[in-house]
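Office hours follow-up: a student asked to see two folded examples consecutively, so here they are.
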Amino acid sequence: MLDILIIGAGPIGLACGLEAKKAGYSYLIVEKGCLVNSLYKYPLNMTFFSTSDRLEIGGIPFASIQAKPNRPEALEYYRRVADSQGLNINLFEEVTALEPVQDYYQVQTSKAVYQARHVIIAIGFYDAPNLLDIPGEDLPKVRHYYFDPHFYYKQKIVVIGANNSAADVALETFRKGADVTMIIREAELGRIKYWTKPDLENRIAEGSIKAYFQSHLTAIRENEVDIQTPTGQITIPNNYVLAMTGYQPQFGLLQKFGINLSPDFKRHPQYHPETMETNLENVFLAGVICGGMDTHIWFIENSREHAVKIIRHIQEQTRVV
């Protein structure tokens, strides 16, 4: 019987593990992928918007060469945190069911069954991309994830999106020899890192990167795509479509567990903001999952405190009992 089972070994799941260990609770972190799985899927050359001190967990210093760390530095940091603190983690083990049994929960995974008095759900949102729902989206040329620009050398690519991910993809692939066209639903670029936005604006202005604003794809075929623009539909040659359209949490998993979601498009899960407890007694949420479809609300730097709130509440419950 565990005191706490934590679902997700991202930065916030690790932070929950650190707080549980500090408080003397028996705990286990279960992760369906690798350690900090979402960060691992980030683009190879990605630089964080936040400074390294804002990405720290458990008060453990994060030293980086530049003020804003990159992906390899973040992976190194979280690996070292897990190792140096001896965190109890099972990787590549997916949670499939959560069932209440008297005063504890039975947690079924792909490898075992666990019993825990408290469950913390700290899953991210990077596994479920927002789809375009247009003909041809299922072709192999369509990618919802981007890793390295070299692959797209001498290729005609379409980048869908107006925010950070789309900006990084457009600039990196352009500088590695791709012919880049951006498709942007809005009339202007969106939320983009301040050191990136002027670069992209200048590339668009000079015509190095083509951009269609207030436009969207209507169909994808093997060697071309259709674009609906304000002046009508056009067809352009194309080798790859990189749809940087964002991602969403695993709502199906939350519903399967019995956690209430708001009925609107936002699909905010129900939880108490002071304790992070959901409508299920002794089941808590932590991290980006708390925002539902508003995935831009919670980040590592402002949700690492969720771990402190949860463990403090469990301690207060224990004292009352």
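And the second, which I mentioned at the end of office hours:
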Amino acid sequence: MASIQQINGDYYGSKETLTETLPYIKKRGIYTVSIKNYFGIADKELSLYDDAIYYYKEAAKDCTDSITKQAPLGNIASVYIQQKKYDQAINILESLNKKIANNIPGTSSKATVIDNLGYAYFKKGLSDKGFSLMNEGLEMRKKDDDIYGSIESNLHLAEYYSKIDSKKSNQHALEAYKTATKLNSIDERLRGLQFLILNNSGIQSNQYAQKYITLNDSIIKIRNNFKNKFAKIKYDSKKEKDENQQLRLEKAENQLSLERAQFKQFLFIVIFCFLAVLIFYLRKYYRKINRIEKIKTAYDTETRIAKDIHDELANDVFNTITYTQTQPLVNEDNKEMLLQKLDRIYSRVRGISRENNDVDTGSNYATNLKEMLSTYNSNQTNVIIKDIERIDWNSIEDLKKIAIQRVLQELMVNMKKHSEAAVVVVKFESNSNNLFIDYSDNGKGFEKAKIIKNGLQNMENRILATKGTITFDTEPDKGFKVKITMPK
């Protein structure tokens, strides 16, 4: 197939087909010589001269005797001529010619070697010696009735005469053209026409030029059609082979498919049962965990509420009761003082209620947060809230809003109980990725080592759970500062 493709000018396709033979090569021999020689021919015609020489040399290495080695050596010499490495070509051809002169049987055609040797001498600049050998080669081919070989000899002589005698050059070119036309050798016809175009002028030259263009366009079209046809034949053949192979595979696969289906069904049932049991126990486990967590949360909330009521609210109520028992309420000033005490108790009850209510994360979040912070304003403490309205709270997740409110609430409770601060500042800032909250007060502070003991570990846990960070900065008598950074 590769040979047929080369005859029809499809050298790339020929190399592709030759590549398909390589997996079938078991050892070096006549087949590897042939394959590599065809690779060399394809590369030579594609002007890949170095690659061509490589394959010709590899073919020569695989030759088992000196006789079969002559063909690839002759091909190497032809490529050297194309590369203008005339001395290297002459060395090979002289060696071949010597073997022919010594009557070694089976060597390359004597006429071919002599003609190529003469052409190499001519291209090197030794025109007389080259002409003599080329002319001798032509006469030998005529004597041996080597019609195809005479085409190459006439083309060589046409090139030799092209610069010294256009008439003789024209005769040899015309002879090569006619013989190539008779044998339907397209490439040689085109080479002959090239010389005829150069050797003639006027109308005659134009006619040859027109023939060259027509012939060249025609051969390109024919060779392209051949490539497409050959590709389709290969495709159809491969498709038929694959279909037959597929039928055999399908028969073998049918039984395997049935067994696989049965195994998959069994495996599916096993996996389904395992997952069902696993889901059941996981559901039961997480329900238990959630129930314990809810109980713990409720307990913590109840404990905190009881502590607030005992530590603050109960004391206020007791003081108010004592006041009513010891002070005459008919006095207007005493009545006013009683009302103030009752108002403080009411405010404290509302504060405890607000601390333990669900957090509203909707559109009123900022207002409610500000109101919660403001409840810690008193005659002793001034709470300043900065830029809370400038934050786009809609871009922040609900869980993070809840964490923010709970942490700020704990900070304010901590401040109320421990810091004795006169001024508290809570500042809000944000950029495209993060929310920043800065808390600071001028209270009495405490040692950093006591942060966990003071109940601030819970705040840190809340912030870390939202992938944020919280840092505490405090020293005795130097206030308390907290910086919170939370991704939106």
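Two things to take away from it. The chain has 16 helices and five strands. Strands lie at 382-386, 423-430, 434-441, 469-474, 480-487.
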